[in-house]
Amino acid sequence: MTAVPVRIVGNRLPGRHWSGYEEIHVGLQRGTQPVALVRADAPRAVFDLTVEVVPGPDGGVDYRGSYVQGRRGERFVYLTWGELDPAAGFRMFRRAKLTLSGVTDAPFAAAVADGGTVEADLDLTDERGGPLCAAVRPPLVHWRLDR
């Protein structure tokens, strides 16, 4: 098992108000909880995490860690959107699923072999102006190795 640093860089956030929602924030989901919340009107959102890379049964790699969700072969990381109310806390209303398995094997393999950080760059506003949601795969997210 090798721990690989991962940085998710979200650009073009949708703003704090959308479709009746107020005080919108985005966070990285750890287990079932959102962490590292960023206001949705920030210039960008940066999330740093660690993903454990382990040999897969088919000779490829598999991913684990407190931020990794899903079954083997279908791993992903959630970005969680919600309203942040000082009295009621964070109320999630949608999520973006950044897929790991298959799409990112090359950058992760290079990070295991040579070190470095795997970085994901993406816009966090969808084509209708709302918070990006659903499964996010290339070309909506660009995965690369940053040495």
Task: Provide structural commentary.
- The chain has one domain (2-82, 91-142).
- The chain is 7% helix and 54% strand.
- The protein has one helix at residues 105-114, and strands at 2-11, 24-30, 33-39, 44-55, 61-64, 68-69, 76-85, 89-99, 117-123, 134-136, 141-146.
- Strands 2, 3, 6, 7, 8 and 10 form a 6-stranded mixed β-sheet that branches. Strands 5-4-1-9-11 form a 5-stranded mixed β-sheet, covered by helices on one side.
- The radius of gyration is 15 Å and the shape is elongated.
- The chain starts with a strand and ends with a strand.
Topology:
Blueprint (H helix, E strand, L loop, with lengths): L1 E10 L12 E7 L2 E7 L4 E12 L5 E4 L3 E2 L6 E10 L3 E11 L5 H10 L2 E7 L10 E3 L4 E6 L1
Parallel strand pairs: 1-9, 8-10
Antiparallel strand pairs: 1-4, 2-3, 2-7, 4-5, 6-7, 7-8, 9-11
Approximate helicity band: under 10%
Mean pLDDT across the residues is: 91
Summing up helix and strand content along with how strands pair, one would put the structural category as: mainly beta
Order of helices and strands: EEEEEEEEHEEE
Beginning-to-end CA distance, first to last residue: 20 Å
The description of the largest β-sheet is:
6 strands, mixed
**Unreliable spans:** none
Number of helical stretches of at least 4 residues: 1
* Count of individual beta strands: 11
Computed CA radius of gyration, to the nearest angstrom: 15 Å
Q: Strand fraction band?
A: over 45%
| Whole-number total of structural domains | 1
Assembly state (oligomeric): single chain
